[in-house]
Amino acid sequence: MEYNEVDRICIIVFQLQQPLSQVSPHTNISLCSQDVKAYARLGPGHIGPLPKNEKQVSTANTKKNSKDIWCEEEVAEGSQYDDLTDPRPQPEYEIILKQSVGTEDLFLGLSRKDPSSMCCEAMLVKIKLPDTKAKEVVLDVKEKFLDLRTPKYKLGLHLPDPVHKNESKAQFFSEREELEVTLLMKRPMDFINMQ
Asked: Which of the chain's termini has less CB crowding within 10 Å, N or C?
């Protein structure tokens, strides 16, 4: 008896599903198109014993017995600064990481600094503010949030790393119509990375 290509594949799948003691190479199997569709739905997840249906209760999503609508952990940090009703557009901005590198770092490698972001000490935020004067800019820096407001633009920027808010510097370049804010980063492992 001759088999076409689909029949050969189905025979191989059938033989793989049977114990070796029951299958011989001369087993005559009659196949129909319904069997082919059933085998076509099988995938790698169907190999081996069926998974047990045990219900596991996640402790992360369980709510305490209260009438709270949400937990404090569910609210994103800095979301209290977001103002969704303000129609002013967000200006273009760019975040650049900076590190202080001397000749002993560049040529001799004495301070264990490398080009990675873990060795950066500061974050430079360049904000383009066309048709804006320096006296119109209102800037507020928090530990993880930068809030900038002008009559034409609004920027609420969640910072990728915590910063020292009191040691930040800002400079407005009127010829480029750009504000540069230098933020000194505050990370928990800085005492190791900056030695």
From this structure: N
C-alpha span between 181 and 157 (Å, rounded): 12
| DSSP-based three-state secondary structure for 102 | coil
In whole angstroms, give the CA distance from residue 194 to residue 104.
14
**For strand 122-128 and strand 138-141, is the pairing parallel, antiparallel, or unpaired?**
unpaired
User: pLDDT, tens digit, for every residue of 50-98?
Assistant: 666 655 555 555 556 577 777 777 776 666 666 777 788 989 999 998 8
Residue 159 maps to a domain: yes
Exposed e or buried b for every residue in 39-54, given b needs 16+ CB within 10 A? beeeeeeeeeeeeeee
Asked whether residue 100 is domain-assigned, the answer is yes
Q: Please give the tally of structural domains in the chain.
A: 1
Helices 33-40/5-17 angle, 10° precision: 60
- Residues facing residue 7 across a β-bridge: none
How far, CA to CA in Å, does 35 sit from each of 23, 109, 144?
A: 18, 68, 60
Q: What is the CATH number of the domain that holds 138?
A: 2.60.40.790
